[in-house]
Amino acid sequence: MGTNTESDNKPRCAWASTAPDFPHYHDNEWGFPVDDDQRLFEKLCLETFQSGLSWRTILSKRDNFRAAFESFDFHKVALFGEKEIAELLNNQDIVRNKRKILAVINNAKRAIEMIEQEGSLAAFIWRYEPDQNSLPPPETQTTCAESIALSKELKKRGWQFVGPTTMYAFMQSMGLINDHAEDCFLREEIDKARKGFVRP
């Protein structure tokens, strides 16, 4: 996809100029490594809701999702019952898909189990970090061996809506992969952030 240059003369990944919310998201979040369990869980949930939809739709509703799902505190979401499900299905500010809502609640329970077994979500997820040198050029694929393996293991543990393509998008955004375009002004900064990042 290459890059586009905005009014500040900084070349960015081309997708960053396709929606009003994207430049800020691109410049401040996408690709920076994350080890916070709640942020990782939030992104997994938002990727669930994105399934079949555009990231633009989900990002524009992110604050609404956070309000509806207790800031994605998985301990709280795991306790959601029929009352909360009904409220979510009537919430016009989010994506009202019952299968996805139930998947988020299920995955909150699985997250708690994983932390008990692995110590943290981050410790488990970062085991699947690909070798950056083994990856093809940026923006040329939608899965990799590691996203396929992560998807398979999460499904084995009972997680839902965690297909290989969804997991690859998750890895891109949470910094397990630097998929910024070769000439994007942030690619080098992301590389530095990843080199200085202490793996959990």
Automatic annotation (TrEMBL):
Pfam assignment, any one: Adenine_glyco
InterPro entries the UniProt entry points to: Adenine_glyco, DNA-3mA_glycosylase, DNA_glycosylase
Protein's name according to its UniProt entry: DNA-3-methyladenine glycosylase I
Organism expressing this protein natively: Marinomonas foliarum
